[in-house]
Amino acid sequence: MCIHESNGFLLSEDLTKTNSSEAGNRYKSMTPGRSIRSLKMAGRQVDPLLFSEVKSFLANVPSRYRNYFIVAFFTGMRSSELTGLKPCHLDFDRREITLSFKSDQRIIHMSSLVVHALQDELDQSEVESAFVFHNTKGKSLNYLNVARRIWYPTLEKAGISKRHQHQTRHTTATIWLIARENPAWVSQQMGYMNTDRLSSNYPGHMSALVHKGGTATEQLLLTLFRKEQ
Fold it and tell me: Torsion over CA of 59, 60, 64 and 68, rounded to 10 degrees?
Protein backbone atom coordinates (compact mmCIF):
# COMPACT_ATOMS: atom_id res chain seq x y z
CA MET A 1 0.00 0.00 0.00
CA CYS A 2 1.33 3.43 -0.94
CA ILE A 3 1.13 5.48 2.27
CA HIS A 4 1.63 9.20 1.92
CA GLU A 5 4.53 10.58 3.94
CA SER A 6 3.93 14.20 4.86
CA ASN A 7 7.20 16.08 4.95
CA GLY A 8 6.66 17.99 8.15
CA PHE A 9 3.43 19.05 9.85
CA LEU A 10 0.11 20.04 8.37
CA LEU A 11 -0.45 23.76 8.56
CA SER A 12 -2.42 24.87 11.59
CA GLU A 13 -5.22 26.52 9.65
CA ASP A 14 -6.13 23.11 8.25
CA LEU A 15 -6.40 21.63 11.73
CA THR A 16 -8.47 24.28 13.47
CA LYS A 17 -12.00 25.53 12.97
CA THR A 18 -12.15 29.04 11.61
CA ASN A 19 -14.79 31.69 11.39
CA SER A 20 -15.13 34.69 9.16
CA SER A 21 -17.27 37.70 9.96
CA GLU A 22 -17.18 39.33 6.55
CA ALA A 23 -18.12 37.82 3.21
CA GLY A 24 -16.04 38.50 0.13
CA ASN A 25 -17.58 40.19 -2.89
CA ARG A 26 -19.24 37.84 -5.33
CA TYR A 27 -17.31 37.36 -8.56
CA LYS A 28 -18.81 39.14 -11.54
CA SER A 29 -16.48 37.72 -14.15
CA MET A 30 -14.59 34.55 -14.95
CA THR A 31 -11.40 35.92 -13.39
CA PRO A 32 -10.75 34.16 -10.04
CA GLY A 33 -9.69 36.56 -7.31
CA ARG A 34 -10.83 39.69 -9.11
CA SER A 35 -12.58 41.29 -6.16
CA ILE A 36 -12.21 38.92 -3.23
CA ARG A 37 -11.76 40.49 0.16
CA SER A 38 -9.12 39.07 2.46
CA LEU A 39 -10.85 37.13 5.21
CA LYS A 40 -9.11 36.85 8.56
CA MET A 41 -8.76 33.31 9.88
CA ALA A 42 -6.73 31.83 12.70
CA GLY A 43 -4.26 34.70 12.68
CA ARG A 44 -3.83 34.44 8.92
CA GLN A 45 -5.86 35.68 5.97
CA VAL A 46 -7.62 33.97 3.12
CA ASP A 47 -5.88 35.91 0.38
CA PRO A 48 -5.84 33.94 -2.90
CA LEU A 49 -3.91 35.15 -5.91
CA LEU A 50 -5.72 36.69 -8.86
CA PHE A 51 -5.62 34.46 -11.91
CA SER A 52 -3.40 37.03 -13.62
CA GLU A 53 -1.06 36.80 -10.64
CA VAL A 54 -0.97 33.00 -10.87
CA LYS A 55 0.12 33.28 -14.50
CA SER A 56 2.67 35.95 -13.63
CA PHE A 57 4.04 33.80 -10.80
CA LEU A 58 4.39 30.78 -13.08
CA ALA A 59 6.10 32.93 -15.70
CA ASN A 60 8.68 34.14 -13.16
CA VAL A 61 9.28 31.07 -11.01
CA PRO A 62 12.52 29.14 -11.74
CA SER A 63 11.75 26.51 -14.38
CA ARG A 64 12.76 23.69 -12.04
CA TYR A 65 9.86 24.60 -9.75
CA ARG A 66 7.21 25.49 -12.31
CA ASN A 67 5.60 22.03 -12.30
CA TYR A 68 5.61 22.02 -8.50
CA PHE A 69 3.63 25.23 -8.33
CA ILE A 70 1.26 24.29 -11.16
CA VAL A 71 0.27 21.29 -9.07
CA ALA A 72 0.06 23.47 -5.96
CA PHE A 73 -2.18 26.08 -7.59
CA PHE A 74 -4.53 23.63 -9.31
CA THR A 75 -4.97 20.72 -6.88
CA GLY A 76 -5.29 22.43 -3.49
CA MET A 77 -2.66 20.12 -2.03
CA ARG A 78 -0.91 21.23 1.14
CA SER A 79 2.81 21.91 0.89
CA SER A 80 3.55 18.90 3.08
CA GLU A 81 1.43 16.73 0.78
CA LEU A 82 3.24 17.99 -2.30
CA THR A 83 6.69 17.29 -0.93
CA GLY A 84 5.59 13.83 0.15
CA LEU A 85 3.95 12.99 -3.20
CA LYS A 86 5.10 9.72 -4.80
CA PRO A 87 4.57 8.26 -8.29
CA CYS A 88 2.44 5.48 -6.77
CA HIS A 89 -0.10 8.13 -5.74
CA LEU A 90 -0.74 9.01 -9.39
CA ASP A 91 -3.24 7.34 -11.72
CA PHE A 92 -3.01 9.10 -15.07
CA ASP A 93 -5.64 6.86 -16.69
CA ARG A 94 -8.23 7.88 -14.09
CA ARG A 95 -6.69 11.33 -13.69
CA GLU A 96 -6.56 10.94 -9.94
CA ILE A 97 -4.10 11.59 -7.13
CA THR A 98 -4.75 9.29 -4.18
CA LEU A 99 -3.32 10.31 -0.83
CA SER A 100 -3.54 7.45 1.65
CA PHE A 101 -2.84 8.27 5.26
CA LYS A 102 -2.95 5.94 8.26
CA SER A 103 -6.58 6.76 9.03
CA ASP A 104 -7.81 8.59 5.96
CA GLN A 105 -7.74 8.70 2.17
CA ARG A 106 -8.28 11.58 -0.23
CA ILE A 107 -8.69 11.41 -4.01
CA ILE A 108 -7.88 14.57 -5.97
CA HIS A 109 -8.93 15.14 -9.57
CA MET A 110 -6.19 16.08 -12.05
CA SER A 111 -6.98 18.70 -14.68
CA SER A 112 -5.10 18.58 -17.99
CA LEU A 113 -2.64 21.19 -16.70
CA VAL A 114 -1.84 19.06 -13.67
CA VAL A 115 -1.54 15.86 -15.72
CA HIS A 116 0.95 17.53 -18.06
CA ALA A 117 2.96 19.05 -15.18
CA LEU A 118 3.26 15.74 -13.32
CA GLN A 119 4.15 13.75 -16.42
CA ASP A 120 6.74 16.34 -17.37
CA GLU A 121 8.22 16.29 -13.87
CA LEU A 122 8.56 12.51 -13.92
CA ASP A 123 9.99 12.49 -17.46
CA GLN A 124 12.66 15.09 -16.77
CA SER A 125 13.91 13.59 -13.51
CA GLU A 126 17.63 12.80 -13.78
CA VAL A 127 17.98 10.83 -10.54
CA GLU A 128 16.08 7.92 -9.01
CA SER A 129 13.74 9.02 -6.28
CA ALA A 130 10.73 7.77 -4.36
CA PHE A 131 9.25 11.26 -4.65
CA VAL A 132 7.75 13.19 -7.54
CA PHE A 133 9.32 16.46 -6.43
CA HIS A 134 12.83 15.98 -5.12
CA ASN A 135 16.25 17.59 -4.85
CA THR A 136 19.34 16.69 -6.86
CA LYS A 137 20.06 13.82 -4.46
CA GLY A 138 16.60 12.30 -4.89
CA LYS A 139 15.40 13.30 -1.44
CA SER A 140 12.05 14.97 -0.88
CA LEU A 141 11.94 18.76 -0.93
CA ASN A 142 11.67 20.70 2.31
CA TYR A 143 8.65 22.95 1.80
CA LEU A 144 9.91 25.52 4.29
CA ASN A 145 13.05 25.89 2.17
CA VAL A 146 10.90 26.09 -0.96
CA ALA A 147 8.93 28.92 0.63
CA ARG A 148 12.06 30.81 1.66
CA ARG A 149 14.15 30.27 -1.46
CA ILE A 150 11.48 30.11 -4.20
CA TRP A 151 8.00 31.24 -3.15
CA TYR A 152 8.77 34.62 -1.56
CA PRO A 153 11.49 35.66 -4.06
CA THR A 154 9.16 34.81 -6.97
CA LEU A 155 6.30 36.82 -5.46
CA GLU A 156 8.64 39.80 -5.25
CA LYS A 157 9.97 39.30 -8.77
CA ALA A 158 6.43 39.07 -10.18
CA GLY A 159 5.31 42.16 -8.28
CA ILE A 160 2.78 40.22 -6.19
CA SER A 161 2.09 41.24 -2.60
CA LYS A 162 3.74 39.03 0.01
CA ARG A 163 1.60 36.25 1.45
CA HIS A 164 1.98 32.77 2.91
CA GLN A 165 2.63 29.85 0.57
CA HIS A 166 -0.60 28.28 1.83
CA GLN A 167 -2.47 30.79 -0.34
CA THR A 168 -1.91 28.44 -3.29
CA ARG A 169 -4.48 26.21 -1.60
CA HIS A 170 -6.98 29.05 -1.18
CA THR A 171 -6.40 30.02 -4.80
CA THR A 172 -7.38 26.51 -5.88
CA ALA A 173 -10.58 26.60 -3.85
CA THR A 174 -11.67 29.95 -5.27
CA ILE A 175 -10.98 28.78 -8.83
CA TRP A 176 -13.18 25.73 -8.29
CA LEU A 177 -15.95 27.78 -6.70
CA ILE A 178 -15.82 30.42 -9.42
CA ALA A 179 -16.10 27.60 -11.96
CA ARG A 180 -19.27 26.66 -10.03
CA GLU A 181 -18.16 23.19 -9.10
CA ASN A 182 -20.32 21.26 -6.67
CA PRO A 183 -19.40 22.56 -3.17
CA ALA A 184 -19.50 19.00 -1.81
CA TRP A 185 -16.96 17.97 -4.47
CA VAL A 186 -14.75 20.97 -3.66
CA SER A 187 -14.84 20.08 0.05
CA GLN A 188 -13.78 16.52 -0.76
CA GLN A 189 -10.94 17.72 -2.96
CA MET A 190 -9.71 20.06 -0.23
CA GLY A 191 -9.92 17.36 2.41
CA TYR A 192 -12.65 19.07 4.45
CA MET A 193 -15.16 17.04 6.44
CA ASN A 194 -18.08 19.02 4.98
CA THR A 195 -18.95 22.30 3.25
CA ASP A 196 -18.89 24.33 6.48
CA ARG A 197 -15.26 25.27 5.86
CA LEU A 198 -16.14 26.55 2.40
CA SER A 199 -18.94 28.67 3.85
CA SER A 200 -16.63 30.25 6.43
CA ASN A 201 -13.53 30.61 4.24
CA TYR A 202 -15.15 31.58 0.93
CA PRO A 203 -18.66 32.83 1.70
CA GLY A 204 -18.91 34.96 -1.43
CA HIS A 205 -18.19 32.08 -3.77
CA MET A 206 -20.54 29.30 -2.75
CA SER A 207 -22.81 28.17 -5.56
CA ALA A 208 -25.86 25.95 -5.65
CA LEU A 209 -25.15 24.87 -9.21
CA VAL A 210 -24.04 21.28 -9.52
CA HIS A 211 -21.55 20.00 -12.10
CA LYS A 212 -19.69 16.77 -12.53
CA GLY A 213 -16.65 17.29 -10.30
CA GLY A 214 -13.75 18.83 -12.18
CA THR A 215 -15.42 19.39 -15.55
CA ALA A 216 -16.32 23.04 -14.98
CA THR A 217 -12.79 23.86 -13.81
CA GLU A 218 -11.34 22.10 -16.84
CA GLN A 219 -13.33 24.37 -19.15
CA LEU A 220 -12.47 27.49 -17.12
CA LEU A 221 -8.72 26.81 -17.22
CA LEU A 222 -8.76 25.99 -20.91
CA THR A 223 -10.62 29.24 -21.63
CA LEU A 224 -8.39 31.44 -19.49
CA PHE A 225 -5.12 30.00 -20.77
CA ARG A 226 -6.34 30.10 -24.36
CA LYS A 227 -6.76 33.88 -24.04
CA GLU A 228 -3.01 34.18 -23.54
CA GLN A 229 -2.19 32.41 -26.80
Answer: -70
pLDDT level of residue 57 (50, 70, 90 thresholds): very high
CB 179 within 8 A of CB 217: yes
Report how far Cα 127 is from the mean position of its chain's Cα atoms.
26
What pLDDT is attached to residue 1? 58
pLDDT in tens, 116-142: 999 999 999 989 999 999 999 999 999
Looking at domain 47-226, which of 3.40.50.720, 1.10.443.10, 1.10.4160.10, 3.40.190.10 is its CATH number?
Answer: 1.10.443.10
CB of 181 closer than 8 Å to CB of 214: yes
Query: pLDDT digit string (tens) for 186-212?
Result: 999 999 988 888 888 887 665 444 455
Read off the DSSP letter of residue 16.
S
Torsion of CA 116, 113, 69, 81, to 10 degrees: -80
Q: How far apart are CA 139 and CA 32, in angstroms?
A: 35
Q: How many CB atoms lie within 10 A of CB 47?
A: 20
d(CA 146, CA 161): 18
Sequence-separated (6 or more) residues with CB below 8 Å from residue 191: 14, 76, 106
Please state the φ and ψ torsions of residue 13, each to the nearest 5 degrees: -70, -10
Distance (Å, whole) CA 170 – CA 32:
11
- Kindly indicate the confidence band of residue 5, based on its pLDDT and cuts at 50, 70 and 90: low
